[in-house]
Amino acid sequence: MSVLCGAPQVDDEDANSLINPIMVVEVLSPSTEAYDRGAKLAHYRAIPSLRAVLLVPQDTQRLELFAKRDDGQWELYERTDGELPIDALGITVNVEDIYRAPLLG
Fold it and tell me: What is this structure's pTM?
């Protein structure tokens, strides 16, 4: 899932690729977790507009937020319970609420 402010901008070569997200949420699956944490995360962090990446593992209750500081460095915040502030969006999410939510479909 991507979050953006303003009009969407897409890649010239791939109209399905948003190039101006503020935040990306990636739900990790066991089969793709290594790629999602490695090459994919590195790709996300290279997007100039991006301020936050939230990793949500399927198999354990834990949120991992990578947040870009004003100096361009990235910091990791982890929570297994309680609240996790997401400053890039000016919101706070509750870990238990995310894992308690019913599956869609």
Answer: 0.87
